[in-house]
Design goal:
Radius of gyration: 25 Å
Strand content: 5-15%
Strand order of the largest sheet: 3-1-4-5-8-9-12-11-10
Helix content: 25-40%
Length: about 625
């Protein structure tokens, strides 16, 4: 498989004098459909365009950015598969130790605010050449937004980067249409009507919905909540209106998003030929770590109608589920079985939520006029089809292919949707064939007022799922573990709520999950608007927001109370809430009963009962450490 050109030599080998489009990315170049640069590059190439890639250019000089010369049509710039600030910093604003999208996991190979830096480099060396920005960083910073890392309101990235146009969401067809119009001689400054794009203008378009201005949002935190709610109401592309936001003398105009892709279009995108390897130049540098878990994974669909408040998926991929045909998925799986690196295991088949494949409205006409953000919360929409039989049929077809020994579903399962499966066969089928011992779900919290703000199902729904899961796993006589994810420090969550969650871990689950994440305010989400404004988006009332570092540290420590490093902070939190009954080592204490050794972790087991219901088990990492100690002895 020939990689897209990354050097002048690669271009000469193809007899190219000039590339049509040059993609600049903050990620290392991996020729895999999970990497946007590769996916967009291959897609544009399939329509006859000459596409080059400059991956992780050195930003302190122009040496890399000029490597391929000037493109005939435009530069397409992205920070990579992640927002560069999320990629670089933890929720505590500390530097991350690894960058999984860089060779060898090395850090420092992309700058902070990569999109802005790359655009500035291009402007310095190629003045007058059109620059288009896109990817997750540009998509979620397309309008005025709160930036957690600078603790400030920032302008649209379109203005800060001085780009000519911003493509938001999934960019294949907007970028293709843009290339066609530029190739036909249309000037980039005249293209203002393309779906899925943002541009700036001097005059307010008459049909646009006017958002609070950048200056208003910057001076009044409540204005960010108003703007965010207005943006979320215009997510449905079938009735969305243009949005206009004033920035000084200019207006940033967001056109309605792209219409959902058909199965045929999605099949066309993902059936292109990919090497499914990192560029050969990275082999001596340790490869690209992010490739390993997804090298032989398959995307079955896009979009999510769950609309969790802290999630940006609907803003980026849309709320309509766009599913591939089973025949296309089978063809892709067959390609995997003949790949030289394939060992018989397809690591994942799914999308943002694994069990939304082929789901949607019974009457799509109703969906096209709906302005609700979620089809599941506070209760499932009466128009929602929850029959998972198409998903089961697809999984059966794939696992029956010669050469496929294991087929896993590693994407998170939306458990409140799974228990509403009208066919009743999805969960048993999933547990029997496609769970490699652990099933990921995300209850996030147990306090009803917190899950309501998160737009997540209630504790009663979680308990209903675990009961169903327990019955299925016992019937299958398999040791299967639920791996639940929880969020600490979300707006509306008080210290007392996390103490109640810690008691739930100890008294009801009898284990402490490792998968606990500090809430990170990311651009454009409803949770971030809550964090900034301190308002409940539904009632408009004030809510508690854990902003201080000490409280965030306490909230996290109390949920990971078994870790000896957290005990002092957890006890401080308990004393602050006058919960002395949970301190010490008595039977009611969080630390009463079984003591956990440092580094030991537990997951919840619903299995055959050989180890005891809800009994903890050691993870592979702990077992390996103990094995090494035994060997040394």
């Amino acid at each position: 498989m020939q990689f897209l050109p990354t050097t002048q030599k690669d271009m000469r080998d193809r007899d190219w004098e000039q590339a049509d489009i040059i993609i600049v990315s903050g990620d290392a170049y991996v020729d895999h459909p999970a990497w946007a640069a590769a996916l967009l590059g291959r897609f544009l190439e399939s329509y006859g365009y000459r596409v080059g890639i400059i991956a992780q250019p050195q930003w302190t000089s122009g040496e890399d950015i000029v490597r391929l010369g000037a493109p005939r049509l435009f530069f397409a710039v992205s920070a990579g598969n992640m927002d560069s600030m999320v990629n670089h910093y933890t929720a505590d604003r500390k530097k991350r130790r690894r960058d999984l999208y860089s060779p060898g996991g090395a850090t420092g190979l992309r700058p902070d605010r990569a999109t802005i830096v790359y655009c500035n480099l291009i402007r310095q060396h190629f003045p007058g050449v059109p620059v288009i920005i896109g990817g997750i960083e540009a998509s979620l910073r397309r309008l005025a937004h709160y930036d957690y890392w600078s603790d400030s309101i920032r302008r649209s990235l379109l203005l800060d980067s001085k780009a000519d146009l911003l493509v938001y969401g999934m960019g294949e067809y907007p970028l293709l249409r843009l290339a066609e119009r530029c190739a036909a001689g249309e000037k980039i400054e005249d293209i203002k009507d393309l779906r899925g794009t943002c541009s700036w203008v001097r005059e307010l378009p008459p049909e646009a919905v006017v958002l609070p201005s950048f200056e208003e949002i910057k001076s009044d935190p409540r204005a960010l909540m108003r703007a965010t709610l207005m943006v979320h109401r215009e997510v449905n592309p079938y009735h969305a209106r243009p949005l206009a936001e004033k920035n000084g003398p200019r207006w940033v105009v967001q056109n309605p998003g792209p219409l959902p892709l058909s199965s045929r279009q999605l099949d066309e995108i993902y059936e292109m030929d990919f090497a499914r390897r990192e560029h050969p130049g990275y082999k001596s540098r340790g490869g690209v770590p992010a490739l390993l878990p997804v090298q032989f994974s398959i995307v079955s669909h896009r979009g999510c109608f769950g609309a969790c408040s802290f999630c940006s998926l609907a803003l980026h991929q849309g709320s309509f589920i766009q599913s591939r045909s089973i025949e296309s998925l089978v063809r892709e799986a067959r390609k995997l079985t003949v790949h030289p690196d394939f060992k018989g295991t397809i690591s994942d088949v799914g999308g943002p939520s694994a069990n939304m494949y082929r789901l949607g409205g019974k009457d799509e006409g109703q969906c096209r006029t709906c302005r609700k953000s979620s089809c599941l919360v506070p209760r499932a929409c009466a128009n929602l089809n929850t029959d998972h039989s198409s998903n089961v049929k697809m999984l059966r077809r794939l696992r029956e292919l010669p050469g496929v020994r294991h087929l896993f579903v590693s994407s998170g399962v939306r458990y409140d949707l799974a228990i509403q499966d009208k066919s009743g066969i999805y969960l048993p089928e999933l547990c029997r064939h496609h769970v490699g011992g652990q099933l990921k779900i995300a209850p996030e919290h147990i306090a009803d007022h917190v899950t309501r703000l998160m737009n997540k199902p209630s504790l009663a729904c979680y308990r209903r799922f675990t009961k169903t899961f327990r019955e299925i796993s016992r019937g299958l006589k398999r040791d299967i573990y639920i791996v639940p994810y929880f969020i600490s420090g979300h707006p509306g969550c008080r210290l007392e709520d996390n103490i109640a969650l810690a008691e739930f871990f100890k008294d009801e689950l009898h284990f402490q999950p490792e998968q606990i994440q500090n809430f990170t305010p990311t651009p454009m989400t409803l949770s971030t608007a809550m964090y900034v404004s301190g308002l409940d988006p539904v009632t408009g009332r004030e809510i508690h927001v854990p902003r201080e570092a000490k409280e965030r540290r306490w909230q996290r420590a109390i949920l990971q109370f078994r870790d000896p490093r957290n005990r002092a902070h957890a006890e401080e939190a308990l004393r602050a809430c006058q919960r002395l009954d949970l301190t010490g080592s008595g039977p009611k204490s969080l630390w009463g009963g079984k003591k956990t050794r440092p580094g030991e972790s537990f997951e919840l087991q619903f299995g055959t009962g050989k180890k005891g219901e809800n009994s903890p088990r050691k993870t592979k990492g702990v077992a390996a450490r103990e094995g090494r100690k035994k060997h040394r002895r």
